[in-house]
Design goal:
By secondary structure, the chain is an all-alpha fold. The chain has a single domain, classed as Growth Hormone, Chain: A (Up-down Bundle), CATH 1.20.1250.20. Helix content is 74%, strand content 0%. The chain contains 20 helices and no strands. Helix 4 packs antiparallel against helix 5, helix 5 runs parallel beside helix 8 and helix 14 packs parallel to helix 17. The longest helix has 30 residues. 52% of the residues are buried.
Length: 393
C-alpha cells in the first residue's frame, strides 16, 4: 500500500515536524513541571522545617512522611481518570483545572493549624492538581518530535526564613498559578494526531516480559527517588549540620535534576532510549552506596546532591520515551497509565519506609542513623537499572 493510500492516522503518526511550535510546547511543559514537581521537590526542606520547629505539636515524623507520600500517590492515582477525560475534554481545560488546584492548595496550606488540614491541602489537593497538569502534558512532546523525544530548593528556604512558612506558601501559590496558566494556554497537541480513546492497551501487552521489566524499573526507581528526595535535608540535620545546609543540599539535588533530565534525554536520543536511562540509574545507585555515606561535610554533601541529581529523576525524564520504544505511539498513554498506577504504592510508602529504616539519631557508626536509608536507596536504583537493562536496546 502506498503512503497516499494509508489511513490518515498511520500517515500522521509517521510525520513529525521535529521543531517549530513543538519547541514552544516543550518549554511550556518544562515550566509546568518546574512549578509542580519542582515545588514538590522542595517539600524535603519544608518537611525538615516542620520537624525541627515542631510546627504542628504532637504530630509524628511518620505523619509528615505520609503527607510527602501523598505527593506522589494522589497525582498518579488520578492518571486513569485524566487519561479517560483527555479525549472528552481539551487538554487546556485539564491544565487550567490543575493550575487552580495547585495554587489553592499552597495558599490553603498557609492557613493550616492542624496536621489533618495539611493532609487535605498540601497532601491531597496539591497532588490532584499536579496530577492533572502532569498526566495531561507528559506525552505532548511525543507528537511533535521523534528524533528528539528525550530532550523534552534554595528559594523556598529563603522565603521561609524571610517571610515565614505561611507567606512562603502564598507566594509559591501565586507564582505557580501565573506560570502554569500562561504555559498551559501555550501548550497544544500536534494538529491532526489521533487522540487516545482510553483503550487499545490489552492484557496481552501487560503480560509481556518487556513491559513487566518496564514496570519494575519504575517501581524501584520511584521508591529510591522519593526516599532520597525527602530524606536529604533531615539527613544533613542528623549529621549536626544546620538547616541552611540541608536546604542547599536539597536545592542542589533539584538543580542536578534540572540539568540531568534533559541530559538523559539528549544522550538517549544519541545512544539509546533504554540504555542511557539504565546507566543513569546505575550510576545514581553507586553514588548512594559509595559516596553518600561518606558525605559528612557540607562540601561533600553538596557534591553528592548535585551529582546524584543528574540521575535521580530518570523515571520521570524517560518514562514517556521508553514507553514509546515498547508500544505503538497511540498506545503510549495507556502504557503510562498502567505505570502510574504501579507507582502509587512506592510513592506512598517510600518515605515512611525510609524513616523506619533510620536508626537511632545518636549512633555515630551509622552517621546519624541514615546509613540503612542510603543502602536502601542505592540498592533500589541498582535494581531499577538491572530491570531496564534487561530490555532490548
Amino acid at each position: 500500500m502506498t503512503s497516499s493510500m494509508q489511513p490518515l492516522s498511520a500517515q500522521l503518526t509517521d510525520e513529525f515536524p521535529e521543531g517549530g511550535y513543538g519547541w514552544v510546547c516543550v518549554v511550556s511543559v518544562f515550566l509546568i513541571n518546574a512549578h509542580t514537581w519542582g515545588i514538590n521537590g522542595a517539600f524535603g526542606v519544608i518537611l525538615s522545617f516542620y520537624i525541627s520547629e515542631n510546627e504542628f505539636p504532637g504530630t509524628s515524623f511518620l505523619v509528615y512522611a505520609a503527607v510527602s507520600g501523598l505527593s506522589i500517590s494522589c497525582a498518579l492515582l488520578i492518571a486513569p481518570i485524566v487519561t479517560y477525560l483527555t479525549p472528552v475534554l481539551p487538554n487546556r481545560t485539564l491544565i487550567i483545572l490543575g493550575a487552580f488546584l495547585v495554587s489553592a492548595s499552597l495558599i490553603g496550606a498557609s492557613f493550616t493549624t492542624q496536621s489533618w488540614q495539611l493532609w487535605l491541602s498540601q497532601g491531597i489537593c496539591y497532588r490532584l492538581g499536579m496530577g492533572c497538569l502532569f498526566i495531561s502534558t507528559v506525552g505532548i512532546a511525543n507528537g511533535w518530535f521523534k528524533g528528539s523525544r528525550g530532550i523534552d530548593n534554595g528559594i523556598p528556604y529563603r522565603m521561609i526564613e524571610q517571610l515565614g512558612f505561611r507567606w512562603a506558601f502564598r507566594v509559591l501559590g501565586i507564582v505557580s498559578l501565573t506560570v502554569n496558566l500562561v504555559a498551559g494556554l501555550l501548550v497544544r497537541e500536534f494538529p491532526g494526531l489521533p487522540r487516545n480513546k482510553g483503550g487499545g492497551f490489552g492484557c496481552a501487552t501487560f503480560r509481556q516480559p518487556t513491559f513487566i521489566l518496564f514496570l519494575t524499573w519504575g517501581f524501584f526507581g520511584l521508591f529510591s527517588y522519593v526516599s532520597m528526595l525527602f530524606s536529604l535535608a533531615s539527613d544533613a540535620q542528623a549529621l549536626g549540620l544546620d538547616s541552611n545546609t540541608g536546604s542547599i543540599a536539597s536545592a542542589l539535588l533539584n538543580l542536578g535534576q534540572a540539568f540531568g533530565r534533559p541530559l538523559v534525554g539528549a544522550l538517549s536520543d544519541r545512544f539509546g532510549r533504554i540504555k542511557v536511562p539504565a546507566i543513569a540509574c546505575g550510576l545514581c545507585g553507586l553514588l548512594c552506596l559509595v559516596f553518600w555515606p561518606f558525605a559528612t561535610s557540607p562540601g561533600a554533601l553538596f557534591a553528592f546532591s548535585l551529582l546524584a541529581g543528574l540521575g535521580a529523576g530518570t523515571v520521570w525524564a524517560a518514562a514517556a520515551s521508553v514507553a514509546a520504544e515498547l508500544v505503538e505511539l497511540p498506545r503510549v498513554p495507556g502504557a503510562l497509565t498502567v505505570l502510574w498506577l504501579v507507582l502509587v504504592f512506592p510513592g506512598t510508602v517510600a518515605e515512611v519506609v525510609a524513616l523506619r529504616l533510620r536508626q537511632h539519631e545518636g549512633s555515630e557508626a551509622t552517621r546519624g542513623g541514615y546509613l540503612p536509608v542510603q543502602m536502601f536507596v542505592g540498592a533500589g536504583y541498582l535494581a531499577a537499572a538491572a530491570a531496564l537493562g534487561g530490555l532490548p536496546c
